[in-house]
């Protein structure tokens, strides 16, 4: 039986759909009924309601050891998709606890229960930092602890260190590092929230560059890596390196909205995150825009997908075409 953590999130929910379509025996852990309802809604949107009942749901938190012990009964393979995404400095402790300690718990149970293979869904945020002579981030790019990183990036890097620890203790592992994941079904987070803002008439754009990938390709990469002979490897999962302006324009076209017309220059973004910090300090409210969010918006990072294409023969969906399909959905 396969265990999926994070089955109530974008990647985990799509992974569950894929696995039950392939007649796999699947157990997914959840923390709240609301999370299960979001996954069920995704199945309904794909007209696959009859498949939802094939999932064995188990109440568990990756930080709750007794609950996890029950969840691991009869399990042979694990997809670890659970994790916290936040760029608010106030969430530093939660990020480290959930992403690092939670992953350590998963690794420990995989070792104790002699799990055949563990696939960890990480992020390009956990990848290394380019040296002066480098222009493209690969799986071999080294992490530089002297360079600034967001708390989220540090927590994802720490989670990967737990995966590598498991590998050294004999666990067969594979790590998937997706870029910005585009997909339907979760319009209160990630790309879904971006679609909402474009639909409501987004005026501003930035010219930063990063890697984007469609959620079906993340699922294809994860399952291909799990079922392959390759172990103890990590793979960057990025279809295309695009500017945020290009992505927003594609979304606008798909939704028949005007393109954003005002460029948010770096100086403006640097001003906004500072004002947001002051406002948060005065009111105690959650941060909406941080230093790292600002610099990611106008910065440029190019990611290579050559390794996964060579090892697993993965081909990727065209991002603009996929954006149109999400808008139709």
TrEMBL record:
Source organism of this protein record: Flavobacterium faecale
GO molecular function: aldehyde dehydrogenase (NAD+) activity
Pfam families registered for this protein in UniProt: Epimerase
Protein name as catalogued: NAD-dependent epimerase
Domain NAD-dependent epimerase/dehydratase positions: 2-235
GO cellular component annotations of the record: cytoplasm
Superkingdom as given in the UniProt entry: Bacteria
InterPro entries in the record: Epimerase_deHydtase, NAD(P)-bd_dom_sf, NAD(P)-dependent_oxidoreduct
């Amino acid at each position: 039986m396969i265990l999926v953590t994070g089955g109530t999130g974008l990647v985990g929910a799509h992974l569950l759909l894929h696995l039950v379509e392939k007649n796999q025996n699947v157990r997914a852990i959840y923390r709240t009924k609301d999370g299960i309802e979001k996954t069920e809604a995704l199945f309904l949107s794909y007209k696959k309601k009859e498949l939802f009942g094939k999932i064995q749901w188990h109440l568990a938190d990756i930080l709750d050891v007794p609950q996890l012990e029950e969840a691991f009964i009869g399990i042979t393979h694990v997809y670890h998709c659970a994790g916290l995404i936040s760029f608010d400095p106030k969430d530093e402790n939660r990020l480290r606890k959930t992403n690092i300690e939670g992953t350590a718990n998963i690794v420990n149970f995989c070792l104790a229960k002699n799990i055949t293979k563990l696939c960890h869904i990480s992020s390009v945020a956990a990848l290394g930092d380019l040296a002066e002579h480098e222009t493209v981030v690969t799986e071999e790019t080294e992490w530089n602890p002297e360079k600034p990183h967001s708390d989220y990036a540090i927590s994802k890097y720490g989670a990967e260190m737990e995966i590598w620890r498991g590998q050294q203790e004999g666990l067969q592992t594979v790590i998937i590092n997706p870029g910005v994941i585009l997909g339907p079904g979760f319009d209160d987070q990630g790309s879904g929230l971006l679609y909402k803002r474009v639909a409501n008439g987004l005026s501003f754009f930035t010219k930063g560059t990063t890697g984007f990938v469609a959620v079906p390709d993340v699922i294809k990469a994860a399952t291909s890596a799990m079922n392959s002979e390759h172990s103890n490897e990590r793979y960057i999962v990025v279809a295309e390196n695009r500017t945020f302006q290009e992505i927003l324009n594609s979304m606008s076209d798909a939704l028949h909205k005007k393109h954003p017309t005002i460029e948010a220059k770096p100086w403006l973004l640097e001003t906004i995150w500072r004002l947001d910090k002051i406002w948060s300090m005065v009111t105690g409210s959650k941060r909406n825009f941080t230093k790292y969010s600002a610099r990611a918006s106008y910065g440029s990072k190019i990611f290579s997908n050559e390794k996964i294409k060579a090892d697993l023969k993965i081909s990727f969906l065209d991002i603009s075409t996929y954006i149109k399909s999400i808008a139709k959905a």
